[in-house]
């Protein structure tokens, strides 16, 4: 496996574009297109929130139908959530506009939206934007990067990655882009991720690969405990690498899923670290657990604790908050057996041993917790299973961003 430059246009046959449609934002791009030169099989995972945005419902329908997909249209600024039949109709209007502009079937157009909930999309601006995107689409790495920028809302930076693998002597590429900064919580978190590959793989196998990996990547991040109405991860495969078909359970499948995991974990961590107002990526490793489920519950509980997140913001080794979060998680463990460590680029320090504080240096702990990426390692000494969750610190900036988000 090799990391390469680019994102959604790194794989063969994919083009992208961005444009400023003026949907909410002024003087910046707010629409993006991903286009495949040939039809793709598609897989998707979506929010578990009962309140689902219109694009989520549309995409679920398209993915379930088995239709070959050739384009994805995404807008930022307005989420098209809680907009009723009118909002769902705008998804169809978007697909129809893309079909007309690109000469493809509307049944194979996926859509995505992110932004303010409850507002109707200005559909005339959206369809005009689709026509512009169709004219501007290119296969360059730069067009992929600009597409990643166009889907940002409160994000501070674009998020993209691409890797290459070998499958039976053929080079297969996987590339992705994502957005997400707030309303991020495990269970498909407002986050959107779009992944493209030129692999030859069936729709069923592609869906298994995505579904199996989401639990260990996007579902292990949290910024604020709010599960969005719009969470969507879409994975397209156009087969242009001309590799021998990747079969579920084969060695090639293992290679493919390892590469997919690299993409998903990278994007998930970038979302977590770019949380609204955040100054640090906060990683939590639960180790020495008796089951994977126990490890995930403990890691998630710590990373979601607002008191712990504010301690990280203050570079304060307030370990009692972590032990407390473990205690109310629902997982069973012996608190008098827990060891806790903090780690960053500045070093590693043990804070508690067997549930009580060791004689550590507060100054050294503060130095370690002052880095832009900080890890807490909780060892319950019950087994060999581990899990990792990602979040961020909680600062005044989060309140400032969200107090006036609609304006």
Automatic annotation (TrEMBL):
Keyword Nucleotide-binding carried by entry:
no
Q: Where is this site: Involved in the stabilization of negative charge on the oxyanion by the formation of the oxyanion hole?
A: 114-115
Q: Name one GO cellular component term.
A: cytoplasm
Per the Swiss-Prot or TrEMBL record, the active site comprises 190
What domain of life is recorded for the organism? Bacteria
Keywords, sorted A to Z: Acyltransferase, Amino-acid biosynthesis, Arginine biosynthesis, Autocatalytic cleavage, Cytoplasm, Multifunctional enzyme, Transferase
Q: What Enzyme Commission number does this protein have?
A: 2.3.1.35, 2.3.1.1
Q: Where does substrate bind?
A: 153, 179, 190, 276, 402, 407
What is the first-listed, main subcellular location in coarse terms?
A: cytoplasm
EC main class here is transferase
Catalytic reaction equation(s): L-glutamate + acetyl-CoA = N-acetyl-L-glutamate + CoA + H(+); N(2)-acetyl-L-ornithine + L-glutamate = N-acetyl-L-glutamate + L-ornithine
Any one Gene Ontology molecular-function term assigned to this protein's record = L-glutamate N-acetyltransferase activity
Pfam (any one): ArgJ
The processes (GO biological process) annotated in the record are: L-arginine biosynthetic process; ornithine biosynthetic process
Question: Its annotated pathway?
Answer: Amino-acid biosynthesis; L-arginine biosynthesis; N(2)-acetyl-L-ornithine from L-glutamate: step 1/4; Amino-acid biosynthesis; L-arginine biosynthesis; L-ornithine and N-acetyl-L-glutamate from L-glutamate and N(2)-acetyl-L-ornithine (cyclic): step 1/1
Q: Which residues form the signal peptide?
A: none
Location in the cell reads: Cytoplasm
Question: Which PANTHER family does the UniProt entry name for this protein?
Answer: ARGININE BIOSYNTHESIS BIFUNCTIONAL PROTEIN ARGJ, ARGININE BIOSYNTHESIS BIFUNCTIONAL PROTEIN ARGJ, MITOCHONDRIAL
Q: Name the protein family.
A: Belongs to the ArgJ family.
Quaternary arrangement and interactors, per the entry? Answer: Heterotetramer of two alpha and two beta chains.
Main function: Catalyzes two activities which are involved in the cyclic version of arginine biosynthesis: the synthesis of N-acetylglutamate from glutamate and acetyl-CoA as the acetyl donor, and of ornithine by transacetylation between N(2)-acetylornithine and glutamate.
**What is the name of this protein?**
Arginine biosynthesis bifunctional protein ArgJ
């Amino acid at each position: 496996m090799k990391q390469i430059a680019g994102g959604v246009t790194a794989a063969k046959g994919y083009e992208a574009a961005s444009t400023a449609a003026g949907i909410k934002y002024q003087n910046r791009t707010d629409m993006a297109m991903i286009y495949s030169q040939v039809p793709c099989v598609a897989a998707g995972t979506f929010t578990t929130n009962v309140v689902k945005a219109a694009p989520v419902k549309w995409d679920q329908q398209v993915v379930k139908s088995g239709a070959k997909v050739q384009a994805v249209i995404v807008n930022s600024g307005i989420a098209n959530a809680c907009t009723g039949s009118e909002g769902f109709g705008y998804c169809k209007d978007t697909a129809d506009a893309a079909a007309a502009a690109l000469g493809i079937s509307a049944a194979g157009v996926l859509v995505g939206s992110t932004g303010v909930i409850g507002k109707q999309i200005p559909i005339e601006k959206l369809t005009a934007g689709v026509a512009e995107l169709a004219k501007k689409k290119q296969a360059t790495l730069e067009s992929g990067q600009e597409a990643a920028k166009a889907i940002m809302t409160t994000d501070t930076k674009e998020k993209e990655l691409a890797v290459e693998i070998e499958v039976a002597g053929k080079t297969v590429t996987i590339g992705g882009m994502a957005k997400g900064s707030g309303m991020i919580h495990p269970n498909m978190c407002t986050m959107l991720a779009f992944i493209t590959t030129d692999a030859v793989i069936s729709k069923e196998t592609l869906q298994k690969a995505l579904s199996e990996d989401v639990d260990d990547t996007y579902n292990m991040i949290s910024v604020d405990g709010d599960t969005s109405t719009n969470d969507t991860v879409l994975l397209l495969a156009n087969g242009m690498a001309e590799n021998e078909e990747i079969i579920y359970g084969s060695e090639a499948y293992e290679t493919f899923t390892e590469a997919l995991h690299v993409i998903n974990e990278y994007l998930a961590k970038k979302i977590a670290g770019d949380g609204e107002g955040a100054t640090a990526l906060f990683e939590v490793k639960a180790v020495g657990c008796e089951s994977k489920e126990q490890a995930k519950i403990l890691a998630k509980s710590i990373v979601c604790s607002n008191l712990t997140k504010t301690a990280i913001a203050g570079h304060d080794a307030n370990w009692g908050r972590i032990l407390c979060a473990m205690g109310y998680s629902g997982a069973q463990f012996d608190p008098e057996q827990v060891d806790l460590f903090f780690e960053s680029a500045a070093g590693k320090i043990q804070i508690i041993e067997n549930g009580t504080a060791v004689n550590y240096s507060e100054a050294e702990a503060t130095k370690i917790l002052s880095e832009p990426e900080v890890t807490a390692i909780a060892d319950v000494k019950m087994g060999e299973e581990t899990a990792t969750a990602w979040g961020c610190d909680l600062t005044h900036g989060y309140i400032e961003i969200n107090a006036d988000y609609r304006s």
